[in-house]
Amino acid sequence: MGVPLVVNFHLQEIWGGQPKYADMLSRELVERGVSTLCITGRPMPEWGPAPYPVISVPTVPDREQQPYEVLPKELLWDHADYCAMQAWPHVRGAVAAHIGSADGVILHGHSLDGALVAARIERRLQSAGVPMQVRLAATVHSLGIEKIRAMSVRSSPPLVNQLRRRLLLEAQHYTRAGCSGGVVVATNFARDLLAKETDLPLPSITVCPPGVDHQLFHPRRAPDELEQFRNDFSVPAHAQVILSSGRMDSTKNHETALRAFARIRKDCPSAYLLILGGGSNGEDHAYRRGLESLAAMLCVGDHVRIRSGIPHEAMPAVYRSVDVLVVPEWFGHWNMTVSEALACGTSVVASCHTGAARDGARMQAVVIVDPEDVDDVANAMKHVLCDDTVRDRLARQAIAYARKLTWSRAVDVLLGQLREAGSAPPAGG
Fold it and tell me: Of residues 393 and 144, which shows the higher confidence score?
């Protein structure tokens, strides 16, 4: 294929997904002169003005988003069909406008939601007799299997098994439909797990981690940056700061960071814990109040700062100003917080369930911990915080590792897979 039209399907309503991933990938495609359309489940205000069209479609009929633990069965089963029906007029119009100017269409699904919707749109385009090559590609990581496993510690086994069976059924259906562009995953671990849990052959699974915006996330600190950080968060000049960053919800497991911090306070009297998150819905506020109550109960409230709604563009200065980032999340296919912090030269202690942490640990850039073991998290935090040599080594390795994470490579992989597929019969053909 030459220069195609790329339609990115990025739906967040049920299985999550990184809006930054879809945005940065789309921006890189536009810079390459590739026509790009992004179909999203809801507008994401942090994207800002985009140099490509963004179409927001309803993904769940007449229902509010619900926690994973209480999703009704039919919501999962009907989700992809409903999404495809809503997205179809927009995709059909974009394809019609590019007939004669684009050398084919790439339907790129991000996460399980996007992959399944892309497969349904592909069948519709074929039925409509579109006079262009249509290819499927997907960045699906591990099809949510890690997430289902993590849920098992807090959910009933019947629900976990039901969701697992549904995921594997959809994965098998998607595989048999034919993903001519292959599947991209973020880590070697995800590749091996995906091949084991589905009938996808290993050669069809490419490992390519998400990139980092290196213009924004870098280790060069501005002259007054540290002083401004300490003023903004009311942290004394002599303090050592531990950061726990991520959405204000239970999946990010800020509670374990807080409990681990309480256990090291005696040995690290100058330490402060900063918990930062985004979001403005009721669940966010309720979760934050729970963290504040826990800090008071643990008698560390005077050394804990909890803030919400931190702008994305403000985070590089935060990463460069803290001593340690701790990420004890229950699950995470990649976690761009980790990779962006590494690009800033931040020492990172992260969950063994986080893809970026697993890959970073192979480069000795991250300290891995068990998020279910508070002592393990506490010991790692203390070890990094109290040893300048360890922090310096981690910072050097972090910067070296993060330099390899580029959006240009992610786009090369996506377009390269489609070039390889160009000589193959179309999916389902």
Answer: 393
What share of the chain in percent tops pLDDT 70?
Answer: 74
DSSP 2-31: -S-EEEEEE--TTT---HHHHHHHHHHHHH
Q: Please say if the pLDDT value at position 187 is more than 70.
A: yes
- Return the pLDDT at 220: 93
Alpha-carbon torsion (381, 387, 390, 392), positive or negative: positive
Expressed as residue numbers, the domain containing 12 is: 5-211+407-421
For residue 90, CA distances in Å to 7, 51, 56, 103, 179 come to 10, 17, 10, 19, 22
216: in domain: no
Tokens 């049920």: give the residue: 14
Angstrom distance (rounded) from CA 276 to CA 308: 6
Tokens, residue 377 = 């998290």
CA distance between the termini of the chain = 17
Q: Are residues 396 and 354 in the same domain?
A: yes
Sequence-separated (6 or more) residues with CB below 8 Å from residue 375: 260, 263
CA torsion sign for 396, 398, 401, 407 is negative
